[in-house]
Every structure is written in C-alpha cells, then in structure tokens.
C-alpha cells in the first residue's frame, strides 16, 4: 500500500486573489507581519500495491489533480506496510 | 523573514465528498488502484521578522486559516535569511 501526498500550488507568476483576501483578513486581525499568502491544495491518496507508482501518480497529477497551465505540483510517495 | 507552510486537513471522522468525486474521476480514468482521496488546503505565508512566530502562527491557524471543528492543521516554520 502507498500513501501519496500531493501539493498543488499556483505558479509564481499567477495572481492569487484568495491569498490576497486571507492576507487582508490577517492584517485586520492585527497580524501585520504577514507579507504574502499563497493558497494551494494538499491531497492525500491511498493506493493499493501497483507497478509504476511514480509514473502513474505523475500522470494523475498532470491529467486531473493539477492544472499545469497555472499550477505546479509535487508529490511524496511513502510505502506503507499494513501491520 | 520567515516562510511558513500550513497544512489544513479534514478530520478523520469528517466525510470528504470532494475527495470522493476525485477518486471516482480517477477510477473512470482507469487508475483503479486509488483507494481513498482526502483533499485539504496548503498555504504558504511569508512573514517579516517578529517575536513569538510560533505562537502567532498557531493563533492565525486556529482563528482564521482552519475551522477546528472539522479540520486539523499543522505547520512548518522556516527562517529565511535574505541574500
């Protein structure tokens, strides 16, 4: 079994209005030390044993989980031994 | 300066319909090895130097960034030295 963590973030050049809204909200709450907020997605996938895990995860990310026009992705694959 | 990574995930007991939809989409695309998908948020904050960073980040998470009734959060704080 595999546990996969996928991180999807907006590309550096893409405007993040949601992050801007969160930043303003934090400033209103007196957290004025916050300079920038960027918001992304975090996904945890559980996979049964299969071949080519890394290749298949990469495909899932580029085809469905991330929009590669505006987003970058990275992932961590961890093999889990059921106890 | 600090770079803070915040991960917000749904609590184990909370249903994740968005994750379920992504799982079904992946099955339709023949990634039948996917057993479970849980979707969360990932945020990157940039902070200017300030005291009590950890305490203040914890407050931001519990007050605004996460809904602690249904979500858990964790964070990583990294000090960045401007070059």
From TrEMBL, chains A, B:
<comment type="subunit">
    <text>Part of the FGAM synthase complex composed of 1 PurL, 1 PurQ and 2 PurS subunits.</text>
</comment>
<keyword id="KW-0658">Purine biosynthesis</keyword>
<dbReference type="InterPro" id="IPR003850">
    <property type="entry name" value="PurS"/>
</dbReference>
<dbReference type="GO" id="GO:0004642">
    <property type="term" value="F:phosphoribosylformylglycinamidine synthase activity"/>
</dbReference>
<dbReference type="GO" id="GO:0005524">
    <property type="term" value="F:ATP binding"/>
</dbReference>
<dbReference type="Pfam" id="PF02700">
    <property type="entry name" value="PurS"/>
</dbReference>
<comment type="pathway">
    <text>Purine metabolism; IMP biosynthesis via de novo pathway; 5-amino-1-(5-phospho-D-ribosyl)imidazole from N(2)-formyl-N(1)-(5-phospho-D-ribosyl)glycinamide: step 1/2.</text>
</comment>
<keyword id="KW-0547">Nucleotide-binding</keyword>
<keyword id="KW-0067">ATP-binding</keyword>
<comment type="similarity">
    <text>Belongs to the PurS family.</text>
</comment>
<protein>
    <recommendedName>
        <fullName>Phosphoribosylformylglycinamidine synthase subunit PurS</fullName>
        <ecNumber>6.3.5.3</ecNumber>
    </recommendedName>
</protein>
<keyword id="KW-0963">Cytoplasm</keyword>
<dbReference type="InterPro" id="IPR036604">
    <property type="entry name" value="PurS-like_sf"/>
</dbReference>
<dbReference type="GO" id="GO:0006189">
    <property type="term" value="P:'de novo' IMP biosynthetic process"/>
</dbReference>
<comment type="function">
    <text>Part of the phosphoribosylformylglycinamidine synthase complex involved in the purines biosynthetic pathway. Catalyzes the ATP-dependent conversion of formylglycinamide ribonucleotide (FGAR) and glutamine to yield formylglycinamidine ribonucleotide (FGAM) and glutamate. The FGAM synthase complex is composed of three subunits. PurQ produces an ammonia molecule by converting glutamine to glutamate. PurL transfers the ammonia molecule to FGAR to form FGAM in an ATP-dependent manner.</text>
</comment>
<keyword id="KW-0436">Ligase</keyword>
<dbReference type="GO" id="GO:0005737">
    <property type="term" value="C:cytoplasm"/>
</dbReference>
